[in-house]
Write a sequence for this structure.
C-alpha cells in the first residue's frame, strides 16, 4: 500500500513562499493610527521619565548600583559562555547582515524595495537618535564608575541608553513590522521583545550596562518602530525614483537591447507544398473494410530491392542497364 508523505511545517513555509512570486495585494502600508499614536506617546513619556529618574539620582540609580554590586557573572558563572554568544544578537553588524539578507531575498522575490528601504530607514533613525542620546548624556558604565551612588552622567561615557538593546528591538522588530499576516506580526512582535530584553539583561550580567540603560534602550527601539509609518511616504517615493532610474538606465541611447528568449517567441511554419511523397497518416487501430488491391501487370520488386528514397528524391544515380530481379533482360548482341 502506498502512503503519502506527511508535510512538515518547513514544507508548508516553502510552499507559502512559492505562492508569493510578487508583493501580495492584501498587504498595506501601516498608518499612524490613533492606537499607534497613543502607544508612541506613552512610550515617549516613559522614555523621558527614565531619563529624569537617572538625572535626579532617584531609586532607579540605587537599584543600578545594587545590581552592579551583586555581580551576576560571579553568581552564575556557568552562564557566561552562553551569554557571550547570545549577546551577539544585539550587535549591529551581525544582526544587520542577517536581517538584510532575509529582507533582500524577500524584496527580490516580491519585486519591491520596501523591506530593504524600511530596514535602512530604521537603522538610520537608530544611529541618529540613540547615538545622539548616548553622547549627549555621556553616562559612564559600571566598569568605569567613579563615585558610588552617583548617576555618572555627563562624564564622557556612551552607554545610556543601551545600544545593544535598542538595536535588537529595531532589527528583529522590523520583521514583525513587515509581516504578511496579523498572526505572524503578533508572534514576531513577542519574539523580538523577548529577544531584545534578553540581550539587554545579558549586558547587565556581563557588567557593561546599568539596568536603567537596558530599560531606556528598549524604549528607544520601540519609539523607532512606532514612528516608522510617518516615513512610509518617503519610502514609497524613494522606491519609485529607484525604479525610474533603473528604467532610464535600461532605455539609455546606445545600449543594445537584450536578446529575447527564443523559447517564448512563436515561430511561423510554412507548409511543405513541394513534398513529393505523401505523408503517412495515423495507423488505424482496427481493421476497416477496404476494397481488394489489384496489382498492375509486370514484374514487382521486393522491399529489399527498392532504392532508398528521401524527401528530395532517390540518392542513387540512374543506371541504364539496371533491371530488377525476375524481369527478362534484353538479349545482348
Amino acid at each position: 500500500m502506498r502512503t503519502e508523505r506527511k508535510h512538515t511545517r518547513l514544507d508548508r513555509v516553502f510552499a507559502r513562499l512559492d505562492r508569493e512570486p510578487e508583493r501580495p495585494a492584501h498587504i498595506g502600508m501601516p498608518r499612524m493610527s490613533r492606537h499607534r499614536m497613543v502607544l508612541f506617546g506613552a512610550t515617549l513619556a516613559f522614555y523621558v521619565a527614565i531619563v529624569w529618574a537617572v538625572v535626579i539620582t532617584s531609586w532607579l540609580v540605587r537599584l543600578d548600583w545594587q545590581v552592579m554590586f551583586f555581580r551576576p557573572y560571579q553568581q552564575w558563572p556557568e552562564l557566561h559562555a552562553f551569554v557571550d554568544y547570545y549577546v551577539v544578537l544585539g550587535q549591529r553588524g551581525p544582526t544587520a547582515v542577517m536581517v538584510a539578507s532575509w529582507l533582500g531575498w524577500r524584496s527580490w522575490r516580491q519585486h519591491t524595495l520596501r523591506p530593504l528601504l524600511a530596514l535602512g530607514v530604521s537603522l538610520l533613525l537608530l544611529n541618529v537618535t540613540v547615538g545622539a542620546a548616548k553622547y549627549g548624556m555621556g553616562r559612564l558604565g559600571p566598569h568605569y564608575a567613579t563615585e558610588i551612588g552617583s548617576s555618572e552622567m555627563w562624564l564622557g561615557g556612551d552607554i545610556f541608553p543601551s545600544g545593544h538593546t535598542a538595536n535588537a528591538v529595531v532589527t528583529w522588530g522590523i520583521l514583525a513590522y513587515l509581516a504578511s499576516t496579523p498572526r505572524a506580526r503578533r508572534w514576531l512582535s513577542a519574539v523580538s521583545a523577548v529577544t531584545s530584553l534578553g540581550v539587554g539583561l545579558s549586558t547587565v550580567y556581563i557588567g557593561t550596562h546599568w539596568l536603567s540603560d537596558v530599560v531606556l534602550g528598549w524604549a528607544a527601539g520601540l519609539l523607532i518602530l512606532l514612528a516608522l509609518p510617518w516615513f512610509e511616504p518617503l519610502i514609497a517615493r524613494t522606491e519609485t525614483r529607484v525604479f525610474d532610474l533603473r528604467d532610464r538606465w535600461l532605455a539609455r541611447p546606445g545600449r543594445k537591447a537584450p536578446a529575447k528568449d527564443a523559447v517564448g517567441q512563436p515561430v511561423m511554419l510554412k507548409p511543405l507544398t513541394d513534398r513529393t511523397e505523401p505523408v503517412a497518416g495515423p495507423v488505424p487501430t482496427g481493421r476497416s473494410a477496404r476494397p481488394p488491391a489489384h496489382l498492375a501487370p509486370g514484374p514487382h520488386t521486393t522491399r529489399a530491392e527498392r532504392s532508398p528514397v528521401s524527401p528530395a528524391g532517390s540518392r542513387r544515380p540512374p543506371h541504364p542497364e539496371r533491371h530488377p530481379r525476375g524481369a527478362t533482360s534484353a538479349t545482348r548482341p
User: Anything to note?
Assistant: The longest strand covers residues 309-310. Residues 17-22, 260-264, 302-307, 328-333 have pLDDT under 50 and may be disordered. The two ends are 83 Å apart (CA to CA).
